[in-house]
Structures are given as structure tokens and as C-alpha cells.
Design a protein that fits this description.
This protein is mainly alpha-helical and 388 residues long. It contains 16 helices and no strands.
Length: 388
């Protein structure tokens, strides 16, 4: 008999108790590690809902914001509305392969501290942005879905921080460097569009001063197909990336992505995130937002093919530059500025400044309005789910 067993028998004999065999539970380190790495079913469901809501927002972005891609080409009658939305949707999707993820990285990790973000923050941010988008769509205002998203993101994150650590801690979730360039380009992006649109229009008038108007119109009807495609590429390359950044942040906070992947190129989730976001915004573009097309293309200023070409070219160059630099700008701001610049070449009265002023006021309130709506949404979530 082994010594341990003999000792146990002798001890039991002395106490008069029946000997018992002590079994020690064996643990498997691999199982524990796997449990730590893999979220439980409820968390998986939550992240699936979050990603789906993000893609719904991206669809509404296409429905609301990407109508800007076709406003000029429709208003100049170069393409019918049906062909225009198909053209714009195709190039919004193709941008997935051309303009990188610099803007997505700014949104995903450069504006709000990641440790202050969870799935509920992302959901509240998205719902706040979607509500504001739907309201401004109903009112026919081409406000920025991009700024609605970042406003909602900030509002929800600050509300969570305030609930857990007090209102004085709320501003600490903001990463100032990311916000500086975004807020600066609220002004700079439309000014770039305006100056370039004005400059292109003046240059074209000078170069074509000896050409027959019918010939100029014929040439620019063809050229506007290229400028519309370029603008749609720029739109997809900038706007879809904002949703990509939100989705990447949600997957990281849920444990589906390591810190190294989040700081790099999103690892094995790189292409699924990119293709899903671009497919959603392309679908939204295809189903269109005709109220906003009418506002952008006709109510601000009347456009001819040459004007449409100049406005779209100015907008496309601005969006390419900012997308590659990782600066999240409003595509709506950019194309509106370009259209105003083109219209101002003929005479300042060609621009309907009353409509333009109404649009500017809507821009100014977008970030705070979306922040308030996202904050209210987070409070509602908190009422039902105390762990939020």
C-alpha cells in the first residue's frame, strides 16, 4: 500500500471514521485561455447587433449623404436619375480598393479613448446619428452624416464616462488632436471646394472663350461622367471609412480583435470590414435620396454640364486629399462649397444664399444635436441594462 494511502487509513482508524478518497479537479489552461479570448453568447449577439446597426447607418449615409454624388450629374441632365445612382453606387464601392483606411483609423482610435468605449456606447452613437440623419432627410437638408456619427460617438462616450466617474470626467474621453483637424476642416473643406470650383470655372471659361457653346456643352457632357465617377470614388473613400472605424472599434472592444490588429490593419478582419461598409454605402446610394438631390442640384444654383464638371472635380480633389491624409471631412460640405463657387462665377445672385444659409445652420447644429440624441439613447439603454 502506498505511504499516503496507509497514512490515511491509520488516521481514519484513530478517529473511527470511514476512509475517503480525496479527488483534486484537474484544470486545463488552454480551456481557460480560450474562454478569456472568446466572448460568451450574449456578447457575440451584442456585437452582431452593433455591426448590423453600423451597416444600417452606412446604408442611410448612402441614402442621405451619397445623393450628393449624383446631384450635379442629374441636375445637368447628363444622366437619368436611375443611371446616375447606378453609376455613383458602382464607384462608391470601387473606392474600397483605392483609398486605404486612414480616415477609418482616425475615427476608430483617434477621436475617443478606446478604454471609454463599449458596445453600448457604439450602439447609442449609431442610433443618435441615424435619428438625426432621418430628421434632416425628412426636412430636405444636406447635413453631414459624418459629423452626426462623430457627434453621436462623443455624446455617448461622454455620457458613459459621466455615469461611471462623474460629469467632470466626461471631457477626458475626447482625444483633442483628432478633433482639432476634424473641426478645422468643417470650415476648410467647403472653402477648398469653393475656391477650386471657382478657379476651375474661370479657367474653363478662358480656355473655351472662342468655342461654340454647343460644342462646349457636348464635350463637358462626356467629361462630367468622369468627374461624377471621381467624386463618387472620393465619397466612398471618405464616408464609408467612418463606419469602418466604428465597426473596427466595436470588434476590438468585444474581444474579436487584438490591440496589435486594431493598431495595424485589422488583421484577418481587414477585408470583411472594408467590403461590408462599401457594399452598404453603395446600396444606400443606389436607393437614393431625391429630396436632397433636388436641394443640391437646383435650389442652390442652376448648373450646366461645364459647371457640374468643375464642381465635381473640385469636390473629388478635396476628398482624395483628405482621405489619404486621414482627415474625416463632410462630403456634403465639400460639394456644396464647390457648387457655390461655380455659381458665383457668373454672378453672386446666381447663388440662392437663403438656401445656403439654412444649410449652414443645419451643419452647425449637427454635432451637438447628434451628441444629445446619442446621450439620451445611452441613458435609455442604461435604464434597461444596468451593466451599460
Amino acid at each position: 500500500m502506498p505511504d499516503a494511502a496507509r497514512g490515511a487509513s491509520e488516521a481514519s482508524a484513530e478517529t473511527g471514521q470511514t476512509p475517503s478518497l480525496q479527488l483534486q479537479k484537474h484544470t486545463y489552461p488552454d480551456d481557460t485561455a480560450a474562454k478569456e479570448r472568446t466572448p460568451v453568447n450574449a456578447e457575440v449577439l451584442l456585437v452582431v447587433i452593433t455591426v448590423l446597426v453600423a451597416l444600417i447607418f452606412d446604408f442611410f449615409n448612402g441614402f442621405h449623404d451619397a445623393a450628393n454624388s449624383i446631384a450635379t450629374v442629374v441636375s445637368t441632365r447628363v444622366l437619368s436619375p436611375k443611371l446616375a445612382v447606378a453609376w455613383a453606387a458602382a464607384f462608391n464601392f470601387l473606392a474600397a480598393f483605392l483609398l486605404g483606411i486612414a480616415v477609418a483609423n482616425t475615427i476608430g482610435r483617434g477621436m475617443i479613448r478606446l478604454d471609454a468605449v463599449d458596445q453600448y456606447v457604439v450602439l447609442a452613437a449609431l442610433f443618435g446619428a441615424i435619428v438625426w440623419d432621418l430628421l434632416t432627410w425628412w426636412w430636405g437638408l444636406p447635413t453631414s452624416s459624418s459629423h452626426a456619427l462623430i457627434g453621436g460617438y462623443a455624446g455617448a462616450a461622454m455620457t458613459r464616462e459621466a455615469i461611471h466617474f462623474g460629469w467632470r470626467a466626461a471631457p477626458s474621453v475626447i482625444i483633442a488632436a483628432g478633433w482639432y483637424k476634424t473641426l478645422i476642416f468643417i470650415v476648410v473643406a467647403p472653402l477648398m471646394g469653393l475656391v477650386m470650383g471657382f478657379g476651375f470655372m474661370v479657367a474653363v471659361y478662358w480656355l473655351m472663350r472662342n468655342k461654340a457653346p454647343q460644342q462646349v456643352d457636348k464635350w463637358f457632357r462626356k467629361l462630367q461622367l468622369l468627374s461624377a465617377a471621381a467624386y463618387s470614388l472620393g465619397h466612398g473613400g471618405n464616408d464609408a471609412q467612418k463606419t469602418m472605424g466604428i465597426v473596427a472599434g466595436a470588434l476590438y472592444t468585444a474581444g474579436f480583435m487584438s490591440k496589435e490588429d486594431m493598431l495595424g490593419g485589422w488583421g484577418h478582419l481587414h477585408w470583411p470590414i472594408i467590403l461590408a461598409a462599401h457594399a452598404a454605402i453603395a446600396a444606400g446610394t443606389y436607393f437614393g435620396g431625391w429630396r436632397i438631390v433636388h436641394t443640391m442640384g437646383q435650389r442652390i444654383t442652376k448648373l450646366k454640364p461645364v459647371g457640374g464638371f468643375c464642381a465635381e472635380s473640385a469636390g473629388a480633389i478635396t476628398l482624395f486629399a483628405t482621405a489619404l491624409a486621414g482627415i474625416p471631412v463632410s462630403t456634403t460640405h465639400t460639394i456644396t462649397g464647390a457648387i457655390v463657387g461655380v455659381g458665383a462665377v457668373n454672378r453672386l445672385s446666381a447663388v440662392r444664399w437663403g438656401v445656403a444659409r439654412r444649410i449652414v445652420w443645419a451643419w452647425l447644429v449637427t454635432i451637438p444635436a447628434a451628441a444629445v440624441m446619442a446621450s439620451a439613447t445611452f441613458w435609455l439603454i442604461r435604464l434597461f441594462l444596468r451593466q451599460a
